[in-house]
Amino acid sequence: MPFSQAQIAEALAKVKADPNLATERTIRSLEWANQPKPPSHHMSQWLEWIAELFQWLAQSARVLIWVAAGLLAALLALYIVRLVRAHGPHREKGEFVAPSFVRDLDIRPESLPTDIGAAALALWERGEHRAALALLYRGLLSRLVHAHRVPILDSSTEGDCLELTARHLNSDRTVYVERLVKTWQRAIYGGQDPETPAVAALCSEFAPALNVPAEPAS
Asked: Where along the chain do its domains lie?
């Protein structure tokens, strides 16, 4: 006897209702209350990056602290040096300390011949023109500093020497100094050798223009 449609539908409904034959199964399990869920892989990467960031900041902070400490130490040392200079012993007004060299030129009296003019002329006549002019210029600086107390510094230029000479010496000496300096500049910087008569005149006038007259015996 064939089954009716109602019987078939009823049988299918019973099969579907059987949990052992269902396509999906629901399994219940027990968990502790408030149990934290394990972080996802993406979240662990973020946490690791944040931890590395804080570690880098900590290392950088140490470096910055050392740099700041070094700068403070340098500023403190500079302040102490200036303080010592400001409150240390001062030279008396008018005291002058003569330099031994002016722009690498030795101007110590012991490094020069006694008769500078004659020695320079001898060099010029032997054809040693640059050496002759250098001796005249060195002798000039030496006489200005050691004999006339013109406050020329070791860094003074030719222009500085002319300006200081004009302020400290009379016009006759100043005119000679200017002639010698201009001759030196044209020869050394401009490559223009002076004529022999001009050099001979500078040599013969060196002592009268720059030597200090001896003091009369008391």
From this structure: 101-210
Residues 141-155 pLDDT 10s: 999 999 999 999 999
Which contacts of 6-15 are long-range, i.e. CB under 8 A and separated by 24 or more positions? Answer: none
End-to-end CA distance of the chain: 170
What distance in Å separates the CA atoms of residue 69 and residue 50, rounded to the nearest whole number? 28
- The residue behind tokens 């302020």 is 167
Contact present, 138 and 146 (Cβ < 8 Å): no
Residue 53's Cβ-count burial label (10 Å; 0-12, 13-18, 19+) is exposed
Amino acid, single-letter form, for residue 73 = A
**Nearest in space to 210 (alpha carbons), one of 182, 179, 184, 174:** 174
> Around Cβ 119, how many Cβ atoms within 10 Å?
19
Element (H, E) at 102: strand 101-102
* CB contact at 8 A, 116 and 137: no
CB count in 10 Å sphere of residue 61: 10
- Please tell me the pTM assigned to this model: 0.56
pLDDT single digits (tens) 86-95:
555 444 455 6
What SS3 state is found at 114?
Answer: coil
- 158-168 helix and 171-188 helix, angle to the nearest 10 degrees: 170
Distance CA 15, CA 6 (A): 15
Q: How many distinct helices (H) and strands (E) make up the chain?
A: 7, 2
